[in-house]
Amino acid sequence: MNETRWHDVAEAAAIPDGDIVAALVDGREIGLVRLGEALHAIDATCTHGNASLCGGFVEPDGSVECPLHQGRFDIATGRALCAPLTQDLVVHEVRVEDGRLLVRLRR
Questions:
Q1: Which of 24, 30, 80, 104 has its Cα between 20 and 30 A from that of 95?
Q2: Phi and psi for 91 in degrees, rounded to 5?
Q3: What is the dihedral of CA 75, 54, 1, 12, to 10 degrees?
Q4: Quick one: DSSP state of residue 80?
Q5: Euclidean distance between the first and final Cα of the chain, in Å?
């Protein structure tokens, strides 16, 4: 996996505020989230179980709740916020160029 490459993943304006959208980036499921003007990209698989966070809920406090075990992650930092989570989520770099959302993957 090339971690230095920027991937063109979506039209930035197409990411709805307060929702999580799935994108496949270099064979990896990523969740794209808009919180107001800020765009974020996170690993879409919960670190506690094999559940897609893209089926979860974006909370008003800027967290995403796993639909399987109700654990929550901070979207901006990836920090696990409550039990049963014990491992943080990987957060990826994002930028917008010419209206396109670009993501650089991290391990």
A1: 80
A2: -110, 135
A3: -70
A4: B
A5: 9
